[in-house]
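Database export, one record per block. Field names are fixed; values are copied verbatim from the stored entry.
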Amino acid sequence: MFSFFQDGGLFMYVILTVSIISLALFCERASFLFFRLKLNTDKAYQKILLALESLNYSAALEECAKIEKHPLGRILKAGLLKSDKRDKDIELAMEEKIMGEIPLVKARINYLTMFANISTLLGLLGTIIGLITAFQGVSSASEAAKQEILAAGISVAMLTTAFGLIVAIPCLVGFYVLNNRGDHLIEKFEEKALGLLNTLSALKREKDLECQG
């Protein structure tokens, strides 16, 4: 492995540094999205609905407080706090909360595409430097040494290109995995927020009908 990096030259170590940073970023984001934000949203949402069915708004808020470390708990709580307001006010309160949570869910994921591009470009740059070095060496070398110098330069060129792609491809795969997970979570937030809005709206209509009756 050491000879692999040694033959590839300085750019191999730069690309290796990019790969380590990318791996650390992926692990941190994957831990956050798949473990820290892991929640049975349907079960938590149903508990809130059960409290609302009995018109127990304080119990519904307590259920939100139990999951307040999760974005869904904060979003639904924002809607419940506006339950005595107009439907539009409830909707805006939850939309504002969702917009505030999206940057937390999507934070730093795009860096993986940046690192993929950087590693690819570093590989290409290493290729160009290797070829330049090879041709410069060949032009001033003796006939006996030309073949060896050219082979060494081409080796640097091929190794840096290959290693750049080896790092770039997992970065792109990691980006799509994390980005899809983030989109899935945001869709869940929006789905439950809409469901809560409809429930609160229905409860208010029932209350108005009872008052009219």
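Remark 1: The CA atoms of residues 44 and 183 lie 20 Å apart.
Remark 2: The radius of gyration is 28 Å.
End of record.
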